[in-house]
Amino acid sequence: MRGASGLILLVLALVILWVTSLTQSYLGLTGEIKVARVQASTISNIPHLMNLELTQYDQQGRVTSHDNYGVKGDQWMLQGNMLKFPGWMNLVGLHSGYKLTRLEGRYEDSDLERTSDHTVVDLNGGDGQFFKTVYKQAWSSPFVEAAYGTAVFLPADGMTYDIFASQAGLVAKPVKE
Description:
There is one protein chain. The chain has three helices and ten strands, in the order H-E-E-E-E-E-E-H-E-H-E-E-E. It is elongated and about 80 Å long. By secondary structure, it is α+β, with helices and mostly antiparallel strands. The chain has helices at 2-22, 110-115, 128-137, and strands at residues 27-28, 33-43, 46-57, 63-72, 75-84, 97-106, 120-122, 146-155, 157-166, 169-174. The model has no long low-confidence stretch (mean pLDDT 85).
């Protein structure tokens, strides 16, 4: 009986270690975490084109990347994946998390959205196989409460926005300078 109990505990520990290692690229969410800063401006005399500056941050607020992009469209859209773990998993150190996955341009005119060229930039390796696997199994897994995509989009108005991740998804807030 003791051998079976020990084997069960060993298997459970290995499963928790496996899940922990796979979620390394997803950062923990316990409130609102500043994940990015976006500043997008239209380019004079070139319709439907913007210059976008994207800065990404880690969980401690340190810059992980800073890039400029030429983005086609009237609005920018920043997308990410969210993983929500059950509360009991906090006891073993696993917290819900996010990963920024894509930057896109959007057109305000639906005809242009259907027919014009788009800008799509994968961030941080895109969705990745881990998210696709977890998403398919999320509704039947005792280890994942929810797995979903989220996005925030705003016009290229020259303003600077801080992007925050929370349990509810991505949120953009104007920077007050």
